[in-house]
Amino acid sequence: MSELSPFDGIDTGAVRIASANTRVQKDECAYTFDTPFDGNGLFIDLITLVAYSEPWLAHVYNKTQHRLFLRVRKWLELDEAAVEASDEQAKKKRATVLGVGIEGGFDADDGVRECSESRIVVLNSNDGSVLCELDVSDERVPKRVQESADAVLA
To answer: Could you tell me whether strands 42-45 and 51-52 are parallel, antiparallel, or unpaired per DSSP bridges?
Structure first.
């Protein structure tokens, strides 16, 4: 017997693959000002290509009947040594000029090393709760959904 896929019964043919001319709202929630850096990130509807924060998923399902989302979470990786060094410098030297990265101004290097990101395909139930979470590169995720996720984040 073959293993059942979590996507059995889901119409993946309705999933849109964004092109260069497609408008994708992925930077903040359609209802709030939440961003991928907040809480559980943003859930991008793979049919309408509009982003929502987690509290709004049940509302979105009641309105659209869409259950397939791409969750994008972002966070900043900090370099601890650079943070400690900049804290010590901040105590010693105060800014005398309103400017960043100039003589007498604020230091441009605040210890942020890089921005990390996670991309997970989420299948929700009727009440907005998560039924299944799979990494975009997982073999059980249909090819069309993978292509849509890659296109959304390109």
So the answer is: antiparallel
Q: For residue range 36-61, what is the model confidence (pLDDT) as tens digits? A: 999 889 999 999 999 999 999 989 99
Please state, in angstroms and rounded to a whole number, the distance separating the CA atoms of residues 142 and 149: 11
Q: Which helix (H) or strand (E) holds 63?
A: helix 57-64
Sheet strand arrangement including 112-124: 51-52, 42-45, 68-78, 112-124, 130-135
Q: Rounded to two decimals, what is the model's pTM?
A: 0.76
Quick one: residue 94, left, alpha or beta (phi over 0 = left, psi -120 to 50 = alpha)? Answer: beta
Is residue 24 within 8 A of residue 45, CB to CB? The reply is no
Distances (CA, A) of 7 to 11, 32, 137, 142: 8, 29, 15, 8
Distance CA 150, CA 22 (A): 14
Tokens for 102?
A: 């100039």
pLDDT digits over 19-32, tens only? 999 999 999 999 99
Q: Parallel, antiparallel, or unpaired for β 68-78 and 112-124?
A: antiparallel
Contacts of 62 (CB under 8 A, 6+ apart): none
Side chain identity at residue 55, one-letter code: P
